[in-house]
Design brief:
Distance between the termini of chain B: 59 Å
Distance between the termini of chain A: 28 Å
Largest interface: A-B, 31 and 36 residues
Shape of chain B: globular
Largest sheet of chain B: none
Radius of gyration of chain B: 23 Å
Low-confidence stretches of chain A: 56-61
Oligomer: heterodimer
CATH architecture of chain B: Orthogonal Bundle
Strand content of chain B: under 5%
CATH topology of chain B: Hydantoin permease
Order of helices and strands of chain B: HHHHHHHHHHHHHHHHHHHHHH
Structural class of chain A: mainly alpha
CATH superfamily of chain B: Hydantoin permease
Helix content of chain B: over 70%
Number of helices of chain A: 2
Number of strands of chain B: 0
Chain lengths: 61, 472
């Protein structure tokens, strides 16, 4: 389950950055780019908490 | 299950922070851990203010890129060659190290000043977060060049946002620290995406014409009306010394005492070039677009919404919040040193209220660079004192950690060094009619080191009997 969530998180992160380059290249418009970015943001915050804290649990800094 | 574990307060509170003892070698962290930590730490709410300030103050494109490149390299070297070696040698916090050198009473004054500085930074961050909330509520906040609040509705938003931040800082620092972990990979991407996506609106059609547009429309070299002109030197010195309290001022000993080797200080380069290069460039591009669209005094919320829509607003709220919260918490800890009997949560609420009041006045944001510069002047000599005490005093046959050795509560030579260095720095600032306190932070650091060498020598000769008894 965790590897899947991790994979989905990275997909979500990609959704925040890739559309920006597509918008810069004129492939998608401003509104579409911002919608993808919001979707990526929501995707990240839904999936990342399910795995991101595991390796941080015992950190003291 | 994961979330439940994540919200476990008691587990976090049981962690040993080694506040008054060296970090054991078994607890040192890897280089990769440091890269993750500093990359997240140096991208914060302030980046939405500093990048635009360079645009507002008329920095030229070449000056900006060269200044940021050189300044961030120097900042990285300062961590790697000054802060990390001291941290690895002692493996204790700057506060405990200072107490050993200058005594409890003097370190309390240092803590008080730190507390004030943290409050002002927290105030700036409350305002950054509030600027995004204001857009959602259709309340226009004061812009980057405003000095005073312009509506009662804005003050109410500040009070609401600041109250939430203060309450969370009081009861839930551990949760906030974990939120920062969650935001760290996402936030730089929002900055980068926003900066890249709006380039066509400024006239960029490809990599070839970026430089032309950068010179003509973004970093034009012409300041906004009423603003002073910033040059290469302002950018270079600011990017080098904006965190001077952390590197040459040694407050990051707290972090690098966990480093296996002092070369881990180079990990700071990741934080510098993501947070203080890419993010400043991106927020500068967004500011230039806002200006070109007729918004001559944009807020951080305005520029983020322009570049990234709702995701940008979330980023502004998160960036301000994740910086303000630990800052208010740290301010509480610093002030608590003065009144140890008072509960930390009460002090944190007092600091929070003070930050909220300060946040109502936008000059905290519009003059953030100047304010941080003044703090640089105050903090730099402290790092020089520690370095001289640890590395030079033994070579001169002098005793290190004098306050601890002879039970001094107030080491007069350190106090005098601090006053002389700050006075000399301020004198240089006035004499050369400088417009940036950061320019005198480095001279202040050098003057601090030399003065402490002289005063420490004199002091130890006067106290020779007491010191001899310690040596025996």
């Amino acid at each position: 389950m965790k590897p899947i969530m991790k994979f989905l998180s990275y997909i979500a992160l990609a959704m925040t950055i890739v559309p920006a380059f597509l918008a810069m290249g004129g492939i998608i418009d401003d509104a579409t780019y911002k919608t993808w970015m919001l979707a990526g943001t929501i995707g990240w915050f839904v999936t990342a908490p399910l795995w991101i804290f595991d390796k941080k649990e015992d950190e003291t800094i | 299950m994961q979330i439940k574990k994540w919200l476990n307060f008691s587990e976090a509170k049981n962690v040993n922070e080694y506040e008054r003892e060296p970090v054991p070698k078994s607890k040192v962290k890897s280089f990769k851990d440091f890269v993750g930590l500093v990359a997240g730490e140096h991208i914060a709410g302030t980046e939405f203010i500093i990048g635009p300030l360079f645009v507002v103050h008329g920095v030229g494109a070449a000056d900006l890129f060269l200044g940021l490149l050189l300044g961030n390299i120097l900042a990285t070297l300062s961590w790697a060659l000054i802060c990390a070696p001291v941290a690895v040698k002692t493996r204790i916090t700057i506060f405990y190290q200072l107490e050993k050198i200058c005594g409890f009473r003097l370190v309390s004054i240092y803590n008080f000043i730190n507390g004030l500085q943290f409050s002002a930074v927290a105030a700036a961050m409350i305002m950054v977060s509030a600027s995004a909330v204001g857009i959602l509520l259709h309340v226009k906040g004061p812009g980057l060049t405003s000095m005073y609040p312009d509506s009662f509705s804005w003050v109410l938003i500040i009070i609401a946002v600041g109250s939430v931040i203060t309450i969370v800082a009081t009861f839930g620092f551990e949760i906030v620290a974990k939120f920062s972990t969650l935001f760290a990979p996402w936030m730089p991407l929002i900055f980068l995406a926003a900066g890249v996506a709006v380039l066509p609106q400024l006239g960029v059609t490809g990599i070839d014409d970026f430089w032309q547009v950068a010179n003509d429309k973004i970093w034009t070299g012409v300041p906004l009306e009423g603003q002073t002109k910033y040059t290469f030197w302002h950018v270079m010195i600011f990017s080098w010394l904006c965190n001077n309290a952390m590197h040459i001022g040694l407050s990051d000993m707290t972090i690098y005492r966990y480093a296996k080797k002092s070369t881990y200080g180079f990990a700071s380069g990741f934080g510098m070039f993501i947070g203080h290069f890419m993010a400043w460039v991106a927020s500068g591009i967004l500011c230039a677009l806002a200006l070109s669209q007729g918004n001559d005094n944009p807020t951080p919320g305005d520029i983020a919404y322009l570049g990234a829509g709702m995701a940008g607003l979330i980023c502004v709220v998160a960036a301000g919040w994740t910086t303000a919260n630990p800052t208010i918490y740290r301010a509480g800890l610093a002030i608590q040193a003065l009144v140890p009997s008072m509960k930390r949560w009460k002090i944190t609420i007092m600091i929070g209220v003070m930050s909220i009041i300060l946040a109502c006045f936008p000059f905290i944001v519009s003059k953030l660079d100047q304010f941080l510069g003044f703090y640089a002047l105050v903090a730099a000599p402290v790092g020089a004192v520690v370095i001289v005490d640890l590395f030079v005093f033994p070579k001169l046959g002098l005793v290190s950690n004098l306050a601890e050795a002879i039970q001094l509560k107030f080491n007069a030579s350190v106090a005098l060094t601090w006053i002389i260095s700050m006075a000399a720095g301020y004198g240089l600032y006035q004499f050369f009619e400088l417009d940036f306190y950061f320019f005198v932070a480095l001279p202040g650091w050098v003057i601090g080191g030399v003065t402490y060498m002289i005063l420490g020598y004199i002091q130890q000769k006067i106290l020779v009997k007491k010191i001899k008894s310690v040596e025996l």
